[in-house]
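The instructor's notes for this session suggest beginning with a concrete chain rather than abstract definitions. Hand out the sequence below and ask the class to guess, before any prediction is shown, which regions might be ordered.
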Amino acid sequence: MKSRQMKADNSSVFVSFKLYYDANVSHLILFANRFVPIDTAKDLIHDLFLEIWENLDSFEKLPTRSYLFKAVKNRCINYLKREQVRENYISYIQVENKLVGLEYYDSFEKLLVEKEGIQEIYNQIEALPDKCKQIFKLAYFEDKKNAEIAIILGLSVRTVEHQLYLGLKTLRDKLQPKRKNKRKFFIFF
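After discussion, reveal the predicted structure:
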């Protein structure tokens, strides 16, 4: 007999809750849809009613309409805040990806500049006079000492040193960045 009464009570509770739901759901969805997308609005409203249904025992009577609107408003605010955080994070990651790409480009550009610089050094070495070029290559590419170079080429050590000095001076002069037209002004009193 109690089970029949509980079923009757449960079915009456269900019917009254269904009427309560039907009377409010469309107004709440329209309200929420002003601030969030329609699918999100529906989800927020259905979650609210599910929460009310699950806590039905703690309510003496079903919540008022003003309670429902405040609850929906708060859920919309929370949703929008979460979306803002998510979008900020996505924007941050997109900017970080662009910065990493620029750093890669910068390192690639530096590599190209270094490669071009090295090629220019080789070109200038090849432009040295033959004897100077030969001595320079033996000293810097084959790590030969001045005395060894002198013996190999049948020259004096002093000649080898002088040729290396001339080669380095020529390279320094040719590879030094061109200075823009800087004029010196002299003021006479």
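Then share the key points. The chain has six helices and no strands. The radius of gyration is 43 Å.
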